[in-house]
Design brief:
With about 140 residues, the chain is mainly α. The protein is about 70% helix and about 0% strand. Helix 2 crosses helix 3 and helix 4 packs antiparallel against helix 5.
């Protein structure tokens, strides 16, 4: 087999042993300025290029969820209420404040109740995390 035939055969197959394989996919990721600077600093401390540091962190890192289901549900409720409040504010400008006053007060009352529940839940979780299990 000639050298040209060997090269043609390799085009569809694996790269020859000893050669570095080129990346097949490139990914663009955007970071905020503070995140970018923090990543650059960490990469520098690890004596790595930024791309190497991000690649190794992504492949060897663990994804940790910072929010439990209850916290997410509370956040969604608050967002929904905020949207409703914004809609009512627009409506009050169109029709007059007195017609929407009752609805706004009710929404604020619900918001206060959710915030109180959230505070109580966070205080309970803090006090439970501080205790040690005494059962054996």
């Amino acid at each position: 087999m000639t050298n040209v035939q060997e090269q043609d055969k390799r085009k569809g197959g694996r790269p020859p042993t000893g050669r570095v394989r080129k990346l097949s996919k490139s990914v663009t990721v955007k970071f905020s300025k503070p995140s970018y600077e923090a990543l650059r600093l960490r990469a520098r401390k690890a004596n790595r290029k930024l791309a190497e540091y991000i690649r190794e962190s992504a492949l060897n890192g663990e994804v940790v969820s910072g929010h439990n289901a209850e916290t997410v549900a509370i956040a969604k409720n608050l967002i929904g209420m905020a949207n409703n409040l914004n809609q009512l504010t627009k409506l009050s400008h169109q029709r007059g404040f007195h017609e929407t006053h009752v609805y706004v007060v009710d929404l604020l009352r619900k918001l206060k109740a959710i915030l109180c529940e959230y505070r109580q839940a966070s205080q309970i979780s803090k006090s439970n995390s501080g205790r040690k299990d005494t059962t054996t």
